[in-house]
Amino acid sequence: MAIAKSDQMIPDFTLSPHIDQVGVEERASRFTKRSIKKESKMNGLKLVLNMIDLTTLEGKDTDGKVKQLCYKAMHPHDAYTPLAGDSEGAIPSVAAICVYPSMVKVAKKALGNSGIKVASVATAFPSGQAPRDIKIRDTKYAVNEGADEVDMVISRGKFHAGEYNFVFDEIACIKEACGKARLKVILETGELGTFDKVRRASDIAMLAGADFIKTSTGKISPAATMPVTLVMLEAIRDFYYKTGKMIGMKPAGGISKSKLALHYLVMVKEVLGEDWLTNQWFRFGASSLANDVLMQILKEKTGLYQSANYFSVD
Amino acid sequence: MEKTIKKSALSISENGLEKKNSSKRLEVLKTYKIYIGGQFPRTESGRYYMPANAAGTKLANICLSSRKDFRDAVVAARAAVSGWSGRAAFNRSQVLYRMAEMLEGRKAQFIQELVLQDSTKAKAEKEVNLAIDRLIHYAGWCDKFQQLFSAVNPVASSHFNFSVPEPTGVVSIIAPQGDSLLGLVSVIAPVIAGGNTCVVLASETKPLCSVTFAEVLNSSDLPGGVVNILTGKPAELASWFVDHMDVNATIYCENNSDRRKMIREKSATNLKRVIFYDKINWYSDEGQSPYFIMDTQEIKTTWHPVENIAGAGGGY
User: Fold this and answer.
1) In the annotation, is A105 catalytic?
2) Residue A5, SS3?
3) Which of A9, A77, A296, B150 stands the most exposed, by the fewest C-beta atoms within 10 Å?
């Protein structure tokens, strides 16, 4: 990426670094080789749980479903009191609830003053195929309803057509519409095709004002993978070195097992360092991951392998 | 000086390969591996043990399975429950029959392995034949036991009330130590005939037939994960077999009172069904019956409201 002469100048994004696919895949596979046991595993699992954006993004979502999910977010497991800070044995709550704009008010009310954030997808999620003024209204609606965070999608069609400035402007407009809400920019890497394009889209999003960059909507396969997340983490690292500004990362979709989630934490630590190991800077977008983490935590606590039958579905 | 080659020093066989009279061909020995989810992995632990027969001949390197192999096997068994229990009973019957067919075709190998494990030729042949017949026996029961054990119950209200047996889910089995083929088949067959899936720990001292039986299963239309076979030591694995929360029933075939007590206690974690088969002579008629199928079934009773359609005032 060419370095802008002044803050106002938009750089030429076609000059974003190229990615060595073989190297990235090899490097990403190394992170799965670390051995994390006993107390470090327990701490890792709790951290993972605390980084989850518990998500429901279905056409069939109802108020009841969202309320139930909010209860789960606050009390992941009834046997161990949540929100008790560092006290022994407590299981932390998740980071946020992620819903459609129409469900923000319900979620906000259900979560009360628990400290759990409400994230709302916006900008014609998941396709992003809508005119800009509608996207802006969509975003403002979510924020006015009380969303603490906004997850927007980029216009992949425009991106593929090479209209990088269009994509940049759009993100900047949405950022403005967000006001105080933090903005997560979904690249939908499964539709971008190559690591080069993922890197380019990451650079555009960060420069346009994203607080977080996020891999996927969860509606397209492949969703988050370790190599694609590594490419984005490296983009965040380079951006940090250049500007001193921290950007968050959110892999979403396809992470349903605790072991894989721990591999992601290893990757974050080894690429970005410990500063990023909080839910302010790293999130998992997932729905079924939470139960698997709970099962592993209970396995560590009780010594018994657990069964999904004894955990709430939502 | 010219070199001369003595023709007598080497002889060329008909296929053109050099043949040395003195050296024997190296046998290609089978690697005995475990069977999880339709695959033959080695044990995750990388540990092996080498059981020997009475004459002191080492049988083979056998996988010494760990609790993590068991954990993986339970995951595979659980994933297979809905598919296997959802099959038509008649189809399950066909699969069990196919298992018998495949076993028949590999009779010689089983007899050889049994003889290596201290059986006589005649006794081994009898054991294999009985194992095949036992599969046929349970293949026949697949689509019949439900009628036999179901009931329409008389109730004092306008309900149609009926009870039917349904599979309990994942069953962990510690197989008989002695009759390493017949015992194994006799405990697996009724469990899967009823639509359950299982994880089996084969005989510790005589494990050869169990792995070969897994190869039979693998080539007989049985979906992966329905039967998972581990080799190893009950002393190490028994407690894991019984305190896993995702296992619904445990079958224990050894006669070890301490371990039975432990199994009774640990099964309380999720109230799993515990079944002891230590006194059964698998060679006799008492070794096969539909009651073995019922041991891993749960009776489900349904109250279905009915109304007197012809009469007045009905409706709900």
Assistant:
1) no
2) coil
3) A9
Residue of B nearest to A310 (CA): B245
Sign of CA dihedral B86, B91, B97, B99: negative
Our answer to whether residue A61 is catalytic in this structure is no
Query: Which pLDDT score, from 0 to 100, does residue A2 have?
Result: 47
Give Cβ neighbours of residue B24 (< 8 Å, ≥ 6 apart): none
**ipTM summary value:** 0.83
Model pLDDT for residues A23-53, shown as the tens digit of each residue: 999 999 999 999 999 899 999 999 999 999 9
Best of A305, A310, A311 to disrupt the B interface (most B CBs within 10 Å) is A305
Question: Which of these ranges, B126-135, B151-160, B221-230, has the smallest mean pLDDT?
Answer: B151-160
pLDDT digits (tens, 9 = 90+) for B140-189: 999 999 999 999 999 999 999 999 999 999 999 999 999 999 999 999 99
Residue boundaries of the structural domains of chain B: 58-305
Concerning whether A211 is annotated as a catalytic residue, the answer is no
**Is the omega angle on the peptide bond into residue B290 within 30 degrees of 0, that is, cis?**
no
Query: Is residue A8 included in any domain, yes or no?
Result: no
Which structural domain range is residue A263 located in?
A: 18-28+37-310
Reported CATH class of domain B58-305: alpha beta
At residue A4, what is the residue type? A
Task: Give B-chain residues touching A310 at CB under 8 angstroms.
Answer: 245, 270
Question: Which CATH number is A185's domain given?
Answer: 3.20.20.70
Which one of B199, B241, B246 would you mutate to disrupt binding with A, by most A Cβ within 10 Å of its Cβ?
B246
How many Cβ atoms sit within 10 Å of the Cβ of residue B140? 15
CB proximity A259 to B under 8 Å: no
> Are B211 and B229 contacting, i.e. CB atoms less than 8 angstroms apart?
yes
Query: B270 CA to chain A: closest CA distance, Å?
Result: 10
Instruction: Indicate left, alpha or beta for A111 from its phi (over 0: left) and psi (-120 to 50: alpha).
Output: alpha
Residues 6+ apart with CB under 8 A from A238: A1, A17
Residues 285-304 of chain A whose Cβ lies under 8 A from any Cβ of chain B:
304
